[in-house]
């Protein structure tokens, strides 16, 4: 079982509004698990949560802006993965003596 932290603990530790956490969840930017009416965030999702908190509170990026930034970063990651795959395939074909592109 993965480790997790409750919404209430996060709100206290990061000194944020509970409403902000709920908005992140409602928008789909955070995935939570509910148990006994307590919402939890898995530790593996903390880096994304911390980015959203920093962008919102330090840079004053609103929720729609967070959604756009998150979407664009996801697209960049996807394109970089596709580029790596193409590079690997092209390099692999070259090593095997295939000159097809």
Walk me through what this model shows:
The protein has 101 residues and is mainly alpha-helical. 63% of the residues lie in helices and 11% in strands. It is globular. It starts with a strand and ends in a 5-residue tail after the last helix. The mean pLDDT is 91.
Question: Spatial order of the strands in the main sheet?
Answer: 1-3-2
Q: What does the radius of gyration come to?
A: 19 Å
Question: Largest sheet, if any?
Answer: 3 strands, antiparallel
- What distance lies between the first and last C-alpha atoms, to the nearest angstrom? 45 Å
Order of helices and strands: EHHEEHH
Overall average residue pLDDT? 91
Percent helix, as a range, is 55-70%
Instruction: Give the strand content.
Output: 5-15%
Question: What is the overall number of helices?
Answer: 4
Which class of secondary structure composition applies to the elements?
mainly alpha
What's the arrangement of secondary structure elements?
Blueprint: E1 4-6, H1 7-14, H2 18-26, E2 33-35, E3 38-42, H3 46-58, H4 63-96
Antiparallel strand pairs: 1-3, 2-3
């Amino acid at each position: 079982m993965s480790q997790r932290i409750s919404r209430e603990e996060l709100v206290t530790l990061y000194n944020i509004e509970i409403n902000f956490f709920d908005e992140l969840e409602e928008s789909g930017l955070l995935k939570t698990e509910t148990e006994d009416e307590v919402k939890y965030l898995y530790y593996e999702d903390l880096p994304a949560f911390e980015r959203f908190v920093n962008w919102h509170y330090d840079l004053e990026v609103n929720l729609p802006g967070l959604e756009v930034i998150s979407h664009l970063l996801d697209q960049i990651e996807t394109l970089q993965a596709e580029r790596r795959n193409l590079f690997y395939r092209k390099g692999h074909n070259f090593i095997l003596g295939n000159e097809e592109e």
